[in-house]
Design a protein that fits this description.
mainly alpha, 60% helix
Length: 248
Amino acid sequence: MQARQRLTWALMLGLVSVSAMSTAPTTRAAETLAIEPGHPRIFFTAKDLPALKKRIETTHARQWAGLKKWADGPASGKWSNKQLRQHLPAYAFLYRLGGGTNYAAEAISMARRIAAFDIGDLSKGDVSAGDLEGTPKAMAIAYDWCYDRLTAEDKAAILKGLDAHCGWLLKNRIEPHTHPMNNHRSTSACSMGMGGLAMHGDHPNAERYAAAALRVCEEFVCIHRHFSAPGDGMAGCEGGSMEYTRST
């Protein structure tokens, strides 16, 4: 399972060599964020799709074929609650790059299952506190990459879930005065930030989540740069993901 996750994210990040959010903010004047108005806007935008589709026909053809083979395999659609957030991005990615509307339907269905989790009482077992650090990211990717396939009911259900899960992270992972280098806080900020980006234009709390995530990212990157030994880059570590998220 972890190997397949690595393949999915390696393919996505390999295709998207730089952030496509050309309107990304460098400052937070008056907490106003410049966010790409259309969809998709997480990791890449519509203008990047032709180049990405060219790559899956050439340089990344083998990885693309492997991802489709896995998604079309016998395990498809049989994921547990714990696996939903891990595998959802693969289906959304397949749809967005032209794999077929069936992948969008699967990603949206998975997002709605996540959105329906009872997070008011984590003891019920729908999802753990650790899972909640990743569920907004999964729902955000489905919402953003499959936006043109969402019905009004899909949008309402996923937005409700995104708001609830992002709100939980803000209250329990971001606002408490934990150490700024705490990995739970930084991971939660990345996920919550994606939730805010996806919700932008469709929910009043979107900018609140995105701005809070950006503050954590900037704080994390600043501290990491200050205390890292000379030549100790951030590639491949938590700091690397924070730097990438901050740039988007």
